[in-house]
Design a protein that fits this description.
heterodimer, A: 264 residues, 13 helices, B: 195 residues, 81% helix
Amino acid sequence: MKDDYLWDGSGDIDPEVERLENLLGRYRHTGTAPRMPVAMMATPRRFNWTRLAIAAALVLTLAGALLLALNYGAGDSDKEIIADRTEQPAPESKDLLYRQPPLVVTPPAPEPKQAIAAAKPAPRSIKRKPEKVASPADDPWQFSSTAAMADLETARYLERAEVLLRSFRNVSETGESIDVALEKEQSRDLLYKNILLRRTAEAKGNLPVSDLLGSLEPILIDIANLPESPTRQEVQLIKDFIRQKEMVATIQVYSSPAISVDAR
Amino acid sequence: MYEIESDGLLLVARQTQPAIATEEDRSSEQSRLIEAVRQGDQDAFGRLYDLYAPMVHGILLARVPVSDVDDLVQDVFLVALRKLSTLRDDNAFGGWLAMIARNRAMDFHRKKRETEELQETVAVKAEAGSDAEARRVLEVIRELPESYSETLIMRLVEGMTGPEIALRTGLTPASVRVNLHRGMKLLREKLGLEG
């Protein structure tokens, strides 16, 4: 490709690029790292015998105090505990079932039929699932993207991006000059956020989100880099691209489930 | 105008699988480095500086006078060092550092006095030959839109390749490619060169 040399220095040498490299190379960075502030540098700690002795004395004192307290109050407290237990009413079967979740999973023994009958409604009250729950079986793609998108920060960001793209799509081209100053500014703000969120998504292996943010990035760059008074053609090109890629619809698909998941 | 972008994006999509392993390796290595810096390891700080200083230098060179850039690079790294505990995701270090550099450049202009600007003008007059040409080209690059000027300076001044710029700044390779291509086209037009 023609730009290979500009891209990574491979391919045929572009004489103009090479000349500029040689000309501007004099400004290249040559400095070395500053020294870390002393307060931040790691220093090997010396073993402090005094601290160890104080800590040991504290532990021994506490242990002694605890033993004394147990010896003095042992007799009466035992009786009280027994009395308390006898006064307590026997737990009801429902409470027992509530505290024994394994009953829900393991098949019941055949003999105590009454217990089984009582056990059946209990799992319902424990689970209390809402009426509608998305499951991977319904739509695996949507489920995975929904789960992946359950990040409120990303969802909010996508909402802002959606508003920006809608706003840009609706920019009026009828007047003599097209005013996109607000969209440019918003686009610049969103661009930096886009980079951070995409890197986070990549690190988490969240490929659908990282791909979406990756597709959004060139559009944000183009809007941010529009001249002060762009021509109709420049604006129309970006609008066409947004339309071709169906960016607004895609963002909507990704952001809406995320917000509902978060709300739940 | 968008064909290159589309090609770039397709290229990225095809390379996703093999890229993940190397990306993970790089991320974990970088995370280890950042964690070591948090623990106060000066060597790790030096290695992190070597990796990211060209990017920071490029960002600053696109915005502030040449004579102030080196000092500001050191400032940026010291600020980053102080704030490193607030960095939530180590993988976003490049973008985060770039943001600090841009903010530092803005602070510099806010505090700058007029007398310092005069000194810069005098210095330009005293130069001759290739120095003056280099300064003129640099000024033209600085007048380009921000993302083009930053990327072009990292490529032409710092000698970073496109993939390296993408790796350090956190931009996608496709975005960097587009920035380089369009930025170079604009630069050629402004310098009156034939593309």
